[in-house]
Design a protein that fits this description.
Elements lengths: L5 E7 L5 E7 L2 H4 L8 E6 L4 H13 L2 E5 L10 H9 L18 E9 L2 E2 L1 H9 L6 E8 L6 H13 L3 E9 L12 H14 L5
Helix pairs in contact: 2-6
């Protein structure tokens, strides 16, 4: 079975647009959490959707959160340039942060999809961060309805080559319109995030 394969749950926005949530099945079979574990949320978000998911996780769990921030100021309208950098596997300069993550056992890592790839900022973080002995859960935002299997596999491979173990993932379709600045609301994703956190042992 491919990494991250699983069921799909759909929720509706008030305006009847569909938010598709893909939740994998392998969580507790591979490893769970316990009360003594220390948990950290790390995420990159340009448009705000991944941050919305991170904030919802933080709200429900009170886990510490760290945002990956680039030095470069990206413009929402520069869709081609941003996508090209991701497609070619570029890395970008990001601001100093805790790359050792030595105080934490579990990492909930948030990424977004650009041109079917991880962003340059996430590429840099994955290269710099120390995942040895860490359990990692992925939460991914995307514009289309496809399960981002390529990104799940790519992130998993890079994390596990550095000694970490990816336990589970959730992907959320938030949509994208370059002409309209809209961000998915926490109310729209609260139930699905809660279900995922319970399934993985972060909440009872």
């Amino acid at each position: 079975m491919p990494k991250g394969s699983g069921t799909v749950t759909a929720l509706c926005r008030p305006d009847n647009d569909i938010i598709e949530l893909d939740i994998t099945k392998k969580a507790l079979a591979v490893g769970g959490t316990n009360m003594a574990d220390k948990n950290l949320i790390v995420y990159y978000s340009m448009l705000g959707n991944t941050m919305a998911v991170a904030k919802e996780i933080e709200k429900q769990t009170s886990f510490t959160a760290q945002r990956i921030e680039e030095y470069k100021v990206r413009k929402r309208g520069n869709l081609i340039g941003n996508a090209m950098g991701a497609f070619l596997g570029f890395r970008s300069k990001i601001r100093p942060m805790d790359f050792l993550i030595s105080d934490y056992n579990n990492i909930l890592l948030g990424a977004q999809v650009w041109a079917g790839k991880t962003t340059p900022a996430m590429n840099t973080y994955l290269r710099k961060a120390s995942f040895k002995g860490k359990k990692v859960w992925l939460f991914i935002t995307k514009a289309d309805e496809k399960i981002p299997q390529g990104i799940i596999d790519s992130m998993t491979d890079r994390i596990e080559k550095k000694g970490g173990k990816v336990i589970d993932s959730i992907s959320i379709t938030a949509g994208f319109d370059p002409k309209v600045e809209t961000v998915i609301s926490q109310e729209e994703i609260s139930a699905a995030v809660h279900e995922w956190l319970v399934k993985n042992g972060f909440l009872s």
